[in-house]
Amino acid sequence: MGLVRRLLEPDIEAHLLTVEGEVVIDEVHKHWAATFWWYCLIICSIPLFMFMVPAGRAFWLPMILGLAALGIGVWKVHVAYMDRFVITNMRVFRVHGVFNTNLATMPMSRILDISMSQSFDGKICGYGHFVFETAAQDQGLREIRFVGNPQQRDLTIQRVIQLSGLRQTMSVDRWDDGADEDPDGT
Asked: HSE-up of 12 (CA within 13 Å, CB side)?
């Protein structure tokens, strides 16, 4: 993979343990709501560029402001695009960064609890935030923000944990809720 391509697209496949049989179950991009305000900043650069004409000799001021707004907006959108949360059959990991790649990983066996929070905005737009709890005090993968369709992603993680045999399953046929007994116990 060339340098330019590595700067434009994160290489998820390079982090997989393919020899061990690891496969990607779900690759999660940031939800569009994470970049909404940065797109607004990009759009705000258009009037700044248009204001260069009536500014006359001071055209450089709206030009610099427009270039700054455009540059910052494009950069922040690209940083969010390069941030990926990946669910595999063995672990969950997050890859982010443009020039420096950061990788945080957690095996499925270490996940004790997954909390999902959804603000009012998140309910309307369809995103949420995950918090992973483990027995470790300090961990590299704790909070994943702006996850699209969080209920489905939570079920995917729970399904992978269950299918890997890391959690016990209660036998339903042995469950006796006492519904067929009379209230007096006879």
From this structure: 19
The tens digit of pLDDT for each residue in 91-131 reads 999 999 999 999 999 998 888 889 999 999 999 999 999 99
Nearest to 157 by CA among 170, 173, 144: 144
State the helix-helix crossing angle for 36-50 and 60-81, rounded to 10 degrees.
160
Give phi and psi for 30, each to the nearest 5. -65, 145
Tell me what the mean pLDDT of segment 65-90 comes to: 97
Of the chain, the percentage scoring pLDDT greater than 90 comes to 68
Average pLDDT over the chain, rounded to an integer: 89
Phi, psi of 82 (to 5 degrees): -80, -5
pLDDT tens track for 60-72: 999 999 999 999 9
- Which of the following CATH numbers is that of domain 1-30+84-166: 3.10.290.10, 3.60.20.10, 1.20.1250.20, 2.30.29.30? 2.30.29.30
CA distances from 161 to 86, 109, 137, 177 (A): 14, 8, 21, 27
Cα angle value 57/51/79 (rounded, 5°): 115
Contact by Cβ (8 Å): 59, 67? no
Which residues, 6+ apart, have CB-to-CB distance to 68 below 8 Å?
A: none
